Each structure stands twice: as structure tokens, then as C-alpha cells.
Amino acid sequence: MNLKELEKVLQKSWSRETSYIPEEWDVSNLAIGQCAVTALVVNDYLGGDIVWAEVILPNGQKVSHYFNFINGKEVDFTRSQFPKDTQIPKGIEKKKDFATPREFLLSNDNTRKRYELLKERVKNNF
How many other CB atoms are there within 10 angstroms of residue 34's CB atom? Predict the structure, then answer.
């Protein structure tokens, strides 16, 4: 499995049901609201670390964003959800009181359910 293959399968697997903000999800912006669940699936297939950053949109709004850091490189398949000129700082580990960022993300029922759905769709789309 390489990065390009996984990215294509993820894009085919994203939907309103896997988005954190389903009311904003649209086929014109497939990646919107998909960052946490995508980071988890990428971690399943490619390992590495799940990282978090507070992005700053061009209008100044701050938004939580998850992506991956694998073999010394940033892997962010959902960056396209943000408008041009969005500032995305280097990712950091965000795990709160959990052992790993993965455990922290999966402690949220909504995220866990969306992740399980995306994981199954990715598996079926390979």
C-alpha cells in the first residue's frame, strides 16, 4: 500500500456520515470534517504518529485539525478542506489524559463510530 493508493481509496470512502460536520459536507469538498477519522485510518495502514494542530483560517477563525507524521514526513490527506491561505502549524501530540492521541480520539463515541464506518468502507474499496 502506498500513499497515493490510500489517498484515492479514502476519497472514495468519505461521506456525510463520516464527516464531523455533516451539515457542511458536500461533494465539492469531500475532505471537510474528515481529519480525525482519516488520521486514524492512515495510522492503521501506515503507522507513524497522529498529530494535532490549531489551524487559522484566512478569516482568523481557529479550527482543530488532525493529520499524520510518518517516517519524518507530514501526511495530511484532508488539508484540501481548508481555503487557500489557511495557516497550518506543525502538528503536536494531543492525548490529554490518554496514553496516545489514538486512544484520545477513540474515546469520543462520535469519532469512534465515524472511524469504524470509514475503516470498513476503506477495506471494502480496496
Answer: 28
The alpha helices in 47-126, defined as continuous H runs, are 101-106, 109-125
- Which grid coordinates are listed for 17? 456520515
Domain of residue 69: give its range: 3-119
Stretches where the chain sits below pLDDT 70 are none
Name the helix (H) or strand (E) containing 50.
strand 49-56
Residue 67 lies in a domain: yes
Q: Which helix (H) or strand (E) holds 7?
A: helix 3-13
How many distinct structural domains can be found in the chain?
A: 1
Q: What Rg value do the Cα atoms of the chain yield, rounded? A: 14
